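Hi all, long-time lurker, first post. I run a small reading group and we've been trying to get comfortable going from sequence to structure in the token notation. Rather than ask abstract questions, I figured I'd post a concrete chain and ask someone more experienced to write out its structure so we can walk through it together at our next meeting. Sequence below, copied exactly:
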Amino acid sequence: MASNSTAIPTTSVAELKYLSLLARDYPTQAAAASAVISLEATAKLPKGTEHYISDLHGEDEAFIHLLNSASGVIREKVDLVLGENVPKVIRAELATLIYYPARKLPLLKARYPERFELEAWYRQTLLRLIDVCRFVSSKHTREYVRSCLPQGCGHIIDELLHAHFEDHNKTLYYGQIVGSIIANDRADAFIIRLCELIKRLAVDKLHIIGDLFDRGPRPDLILDRLMTHHNVDFQWGNHDVVWMGAAAGSALCCCTVLKTTLAYHNHGMIEDFYGINLRHLLRMAEQYYGNEDLTIWMPHTDATRGPYTDGMLHRCAVMHKAITILMLKLECEVIDRNPDFKMQGRDFLRRIDYEAGTVDYFGKIYPLRDRSFPTVDPENPARLNADEKFVLDKLVASFRHSEKLQKHVAFLYAKGSVYHIENGCLLYHGAVPLTDEGEFAAETFEGHSLRGRALLDYCDLRARLGYFAPEGSPERQSGQDFLWYLWCGKLSPLFGRSAMTTFERLYIEDPETHKEIKDPYYTWYDDAAICCRILAEFGLTANCHIVNGHVPVREKAGESPIKGGGRLLVIDGGFCRAYHERTGIAGYTLVYSSHGMSLRTHQPFENTAKAVQENLDILSRVDVVDDNHTDRVLVEHVDEGANLHAQVADLHRLISAYRTGLIKEQPTKDTIW
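-- Answer (accepted) --
Happy to help. Here is the structure in token form:
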């Protein structure tokens, strides 16, 4: 008894309980030691490649091409493996095959009408793909690679990936595997599975820095694809949170989403793919606005997605006006409910002189471009009439009952946040609001003054309440209002501008009123000291990086995406076609591999069919951002390494407990040493 009483005090009751639980997974000293050996070896592997993309704005084809090509990483691997001895055109074809195996394979096979020619091509292609796949799998443990293998044929691919063709004892064995794949008409299936495995192993983690929605045609396809991705996170953009609010049941967010999609003639996506019923809106719009001059309400169109008939444009324009009036009425209500938003003065329907056709815009009188407001009561401009109430109820119900939209938004909440910290990188879409003096800007919400990281944490919490708080609760209503504030509020870290000048652009001619003044953050983020201060606010050191989206970089005007002495990287994807003329490019993506960080500059993507047919790639230039590492970045140098180190420390404590008899071993038949 005396010896026990002196041994146990070094281990607390909580520690003993924890080690006992750990012992369930590692019931013997040998099992724990084996795990330590494996974990310590894993820490010495090169870190996995991370891929950062931002501001997709519904451009599904460009996004899927970047995802398939990993912003050029796949082509780099192909070039390294095949080398200069293989012609460039052949390397480009193999890369395109990896990107789009199901579409490229029939085109390549068509070149070989004779069976013996096709079989020779199959053999060469399979061997090349095996070489590329072996190369991209070399940074991973064999156990991890096996977990990624397709069912059914995974064991065969595993044999080929670890084949040593110079081993003459197995020359016939490996040759027979490849020959049997071809002879049994399984070559197509193996090629497709090898291509998918290469893409899977080439990139460990995908980071989306906001704005999946709006302007482009198919955000739903982007989300469908991301839901199948093995490892992805999101940092919400303002175009995302307004859709999240619409899915939660915010009437104002529903109207805001529809206003944007109608402005870009994109409502077909709303109807056809999310199943949102616009029939009642169209009926009401035709009733009140059908015979008006709709010139200023005509949608922005893209000739590549046409043609557009006059009837199509009219229907879009008339709904555009109807939903905008609904939106402006609801904005009045939300501004009234939330004095914390400090948006008084932006309840524009109350500031119109309906007889004179003018608006009092912060003390200055402007004539209105459209003076027709048939559904607005000048005595109570925010009041909805009976038709508007009916339409609004139907729209909200349609958003709430869209099964596909609800799945997508639930996924955004599960995988997303206002900001994210990983491997020395701070990721956020918009800004950390600053004052003109470069200090963290303070905002008061619900009696609390918030700034810096605390402000972003608060925004994240309140955005979640809008979707997850109980139905009918004040917290849910407040959260939904806040989702709209995150879309357009002055100190919203997802927006970062003085105001969303939607009303001004539609109703006031003077371009001075259209200006959206950027937060001082966008002046200060060129300052290395400010970037270091932001990093410190989030617990990071000065040698870390901020990865930022949201604001297109005007490269043709000489602007650089690298700010703050290399501490901050702006990677607005620039996928939105409307920005291409201003920026001169289609934006940037970022790749962080074991060799360092590289910024990828992209040219506009035409379409998938042309990329498949002509082996075109979207990548135009690679700029190394951070190659200060004399050696490769290993797993032990990043967050995963810290986790492995903690696991190893726990296992060493367990081994010590086994050795001292504090915990009794439970040998099994699998115990071998």
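A couple of things your group might point at:
The two ends are 32 Å apart (CA to CA).
The first strand starts at residue 50 and ends at 53.
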